[in-house]
Every structure is written in structure tokens, then in C-alpha cells.
Model the fold of this input.
Amino acid sequence: MHAKIEAATNLIAPYGGRLIDLLAPEEELAEAKAYASTLPSIQISPRSVCDLEMLAVGSFSPVDRFMGEADYRSVLHDMRLSDGTVFPMPITLPVRPEDGLELGQDIALRDSMNDLLAIMTVEELYPWDHAEASEKVFATQDAKHPLVAEMARWGGLNASGPLRVLQLPRHYDFVELRRTPAEVRAVLETYGHRNVVAFQTRNPMHRVHEELTKRAIAKVDGVLLLHPSVGMTKPGDVDHYTRVRVYKALSQKYYEPDRIVLSLLPLAMRMGGPREALWHAIIRRNYGANHFIVGRDHAGPGSDSTGKPFYGPYDAQGLVSKYQVETGVTMEPFEQLVYLPDEDRYEEVSKIPADVKTMNISGTQVREEYLAKGRLLPSWFSRPETAEILGEAYPARHKQGVCLWFTGLSGAGKSTTALVLQQLLLEAGREATQLDGDIVRTHLSKGLGFSREDRDANILRIGFVAGEITRHGGTVVCAAVSPYRATRDAVRAMVDDDQFVEIFVDTPLSVCEERDVKGMYAKARRGEIKEFTGISDPYEPPLNPELTLDTENRTPVENARAIVDWLRERGFVRQEAPVSANGHKA
Ligand code: ADP
Ligand code: ADP
Done:
């Protein structure tokens, strides 16, 4: 039998996971579900779903419910529960007066798909104040802070009361890596090391993180609990599917097998800097860790609206170390590490003499200089597995989808230009799907007419298909009158602003009418066609189109070339391979 780990044997009350189990026992489940179906229910937010899961399995131990007013106020002001236990983050269930909750009542908590999760007995309903919560927890009221902004949309009352959890939120991804505190502690116990050092992350891991975690393993002579947050992180972060592929590859290949446990944490982060770091340490205590790595700017939300960082880079270390004795978690501080190319190793910045050459790649550079351009990250910065996974997840611009959306009057030249464009795109290495208004109306939108509703339905159908094509890396050229601005904007939102190119074919009505390719303007003037765009129905020109075409002074070929040039400048079309003077590719 292995030596028992300190973390599991020497639980320091009140943490260490009281093995709270709010899950209703199997025998009672059917009855409880039947009962729940008779109750009034509320749908809780994705964040509250994460919090509920953490509460249910004991990750927030000793907290076993969404906080009541006494705990809430005490946490806000003193970073302690009302019984004195250190706990820096309020865990609340915000509801609205119009939800109609009543004291003493049982309610069913459901997720956004209406799946039943838990029964809560409403013991308390109390108002909370946005400004106060922002100031106390996040030390700011600046709406650039993601939680300050999000909290402004929460209901004004907090509901609290005992929970009976009937169903944990379901996860179908990486199930083998999703473990409760009790399960993680059981695994750690089989490893036979006294100490466990936890590492929290919301980013892909590069060489620098590998170095830092290995130093921590050596320092405590223990096991690394690689414990990434996969609930909610900072908006814009690399998605967790991609990150977990990276963690799996690294943990399997670059660490001693008996020195690492990879487990996923369904935590919804708050980006609360120092308070969040202390909270992270307590959570990891519940999973059996007795050491916790805190680096530079832990759980930092970036800069405020004046460009100043919300928290000092080492504030989080200060707070976590201050409470080490009470939490039972030793803080393992790390300064920023940088790469020394001449020695091929990483070192803490303060230990490097001024004249020694160092290298670093910032997060922005990773995205813009490497991934967007389809360049693999260099091997001193990332393991090849990481570089490859990130390269696949973030393809270069020319492999990303794009939607070219022509809008303009009937006869303006949308279809004519789109056909030329298709050939030029093929020449440049991009195959495009054409969704031409007239053609779409013969199948996808068959039966729709030209009333406002029917036109909107037609455009939104084209937009839906265009969004799917774009999302899967394809090129789509749409040519429809699309006369209404709001509908075009709705399509832009469906496709994704970055990948939507609105091309206004700005041909005056008089010219279109003179061309009158299909004789429709004449009919419209005679009143034989009702609601004809430009004659008897409005055309709302785009306010900020990416491109505007002039078909009176430019030929279709000139216009199509201008579009390809525009795409090439932005990386959507590959640069032409350089050609040497004798005509051979260089
Ligand atoms: P839409 O698709 O906008 O309804 P079409 O492309 O079907 O318009 O029709 C435009 C008509 O105008 C075609 O007959 C085309 O030959 C003519 N035309 C004349 N000059 C141009 C130009 N510079 N660009 C596009 N079309 C032009
Ligand atoms: P929309 O954005 O209006 O759905 P489409 O490109 O799908 O535009 O269809 C417009 C085409 O259908 C025009 O090019 C024209 O040839 C024809 N059409 C028939 N009736 C009308 C109408 N009342 N208004 C505009 N176009 C019409």
C-alpha cells in the first residue's frame, strides 16, 4: 500500500471536501423527479449551472447552497462565511421579482434546455446591489470588467435554500477526465506522493507552463494536479475542447506518469484577480491539493477602460499567501519565466542579467503572427503537439470561411459580377458556393413572394446556409436584392462579423431601369408587379458596406478583381507565389 497523501489523510477542517453530496439517492430519484414535475420552475443561467455542479459535488465545500444573505454579506465584506470560514467569492442565484418566487416554496431548477437539475426550497429572497458587489468583489465598477458587465444583467434578488440535486449537468466530452473532488482524491491517493500541487489554467499550455509546473513538482516532491477550468472562462479564450486536447497530449508525453493527474474543473471563472486566486486555492484543497501555483496576474481580466490593469501582477500571490494557514494550501509563487535562446532554457526574469538575450511571444503575437498566418509556433515556445492542435483549431485566414454578400437593386449587376468573381476565386484557390437570389427562389425558398415577410424569410434562409458554409471554412457568394438593412444586419450576425463582406452594388435606379434585363421595371411602372424594389418598395442602402461597386464606370471584371484584391489584402486569399524574372516560381 502506498503512503497516504497528506492531502487526503490530513484534512484541515472545514475544507477538504466534506464530500458534500447533494445528489438525491438512486432509490428516491424517480419519486423526486415526479414531485419536481409538479413544481413551478425557473431556468438558471449557464453560469449558475456551473455553480450548481460545483456545489453538488463539493467543490465549493463547505458551501452547500447558493448563499443566503448572512453569508453573502460576510463574504463581500470580510471574505469569510458567516461562521468565520475563509471564502472570498459570493456564490449566488440571482432571480427576478417577475419569476414570482415565494418563501417556503419548493422550486425546480432547470437549465436552458429545460432539463431538470435540482429542487430548491426557497428559504431566503433578498436584494443585492450591483455597485456594492462590483466594488467589494472586483474592486471596480468599470464595465470593461467582464463580470461587472455581466452582473448588470442579473436579476436583482438572490434566492437561497437547501438543494436536492436530481441530475448533474450532462457532459459528453472528455468524460474520462471529469472527476468529482472525492474521485480526484481517490486517484491521487494511489500515486503514493505526500504532496499535491495544483495548477489552474484557462489557456493552452506552452513550454513555459510545462517548465513552471515541473519546477513546482520538483519543489514539493509531489504530484501535479493539472486542473484546467472548463466551465466558463474569459470571453474570447481558446475553447476548452482545443485546450483539453493540448493538456492530454502534454500530460501523456512530457511528464513522468506518476507525477501528473489531469482532471477537468467545471468552474465558471469570475476573472476576479486576487479574490479569485484565493477561491481557486480553496477549491483545489477540496480536490486534495495542499500546494497551489500562483503566477503573474492570476485570473486577471486585462486592462480597464483607461488602459490600466485591474489588479497588480502579484496582488493575487499576496492574498493567497496571507491565508495559507487557514486554507491549508501553500502558495507556490512564480514570477514571469522567459526563454534564454543561447542556453535553450527558461528562467525567471529577476534572475537574468540585463545583457542576456531573452525571447518571448505574447498571446497577441501567437494569434496574429503565427496562427492567423498559418505559421506553426516554434519548438522553443510550444511542443509540436501543441503547435499542431492550435494550428488546426485556428486555421490561417485563407483557410477560414468567408461570405461575400452582394446587395443592390434588381439589375444592378450582382449576379453578373458574382459569376466573374467565382472564376477569379477558383483561380486564386478558393472554391465558392453561389447562392443567387433568383436561383434560391426556385428551391430553398420556393413559394415565397415579395411581401416584406417573404423577402425576410428568403434572405434569412440564404443567411442561415451562408453561416453554416462559412463556419465550416467554405466560401459563399450570395447575390440577392436584400433591400432591408435590418435583415442584412441579422445575416451579418448569423455569419460572424469578421467573415461577412457586404458588397453594395451601387447602381442608380435610372441605370437599372434603363438596362431592364428582364423587362420587370417596365411592368412595375405599369403596375403589373406590386412591391417592386426601387419603384413601389424601398431599398435601404448599406451604411458601412465593406465594399461599394460602381457598375457605370467599372466593368464586371474590374469590380471582381477589386474584390479579390480586397480579400487578398486581408489574408482571405493567399498571396500570389512570387514569380521570378524568367517566369518560374521562385
Ligand atoms: P442583379 O443580379 O443585380 O439583378 P444582373 O447581374 O442579373 O443584376 O444584371 C445586370 C445587367 O447589367 C446585366 O445584363 C449586365 O450585363 C448589365 N451590366 C452592364 N454593365 C455592368 C457592370 N459594369 N457590372 C455588372 N453588370 C453590368
Ligand atoms: P430579394 O432580396 O427581394 O428576395 P432576390 O434576389 O431573391 O431578392 O429576388 C429578386 C429578383 O426577383 C429580382 O432580381 C427580380 O428579377 C425578381 N423580382 C420579381 N418580383 C420582384 C419584386 N417585387 N421586387 C424585386 N425583385 C423582384
Notes: The chain has 21 helices and 19 strands. Confidence is low (pLDDT under 50) at residues 1-12. The pocket of adenosine-5'-diphosphate (ligand 1) is lined by residues 408, 410-417, 479, 505, 515, 517, 551, 554-556 (CB under 6 Å).
